[in-house]
C-alpha cells in the first residue's frame, strides 16, 4: 500500500499540485525519494499552523512556477504520532528540511512566502 501512496505523491508533485500530504506510512519513503523536501509538522487546532497554511501553499505554487525541485509537504502530528515521536516534534508548526534522505535542519526563518522561497532556492543550490 505504501508504494501506491508514494506513487500518488509522485504524480501530485509532477502535476504541480500544491502541498503534499504525508502520513506515518509515507513520510520515510518521501524523504528517501525526493532529493529536497520541506515538511511542515502541524496540528490542526494550532493557531500558528492555521496561519501558516495559506503561506505554505502559496510558497509551493511559487516554487513550482520558478521551476524549483523541492517538494513541500505537511504531516498532521495528531494523526501520525509515530512520525511525531521519530522526529522529536515538540512544538507546532515544526518545519524540517531534508536533503538526499537526511535531516539537514529545522527551518527557523520568518514564515513568509519570500523567506521560504529564498531558503529553498539557497538549499537547492547546494544539491
Automatic annotation (TrEMBL):
Entry's Gene Ontology BP terms: protein folding
PROSITE patterns hit by this protein: THIOREDOXIN_1, THIOREDOXIN_2
Annotated Gene Ontology cellular component terms: endoplasmic reticulum
InterPro entries: PDI, Thioredoxin-like_sf, Thioredoxin_CS, Thioredoxin_domain
Record's keyword terms, sorted: Signal
GO molecular function: protein disulfide isomerase activity
Signal recorded as keyword: yes
Signal peptide: 1-16
Domain Thioredoxin: residue ranges: 1-126
Keyword tRNA processing tagged: no
Family in the record: Belongs to the protein disulfide isomerase family.
Entry-linked PANTHER family: PROTEIN DISULFIDE-ISOMERASE C17H9.14C (PTHR45672:SF11), PROTEIN DISULFIDE-ISOMERASE C17H9.14C-RELATED (PTHR45672)
Listed name of the protein: Thioredoxin domain-containing protein
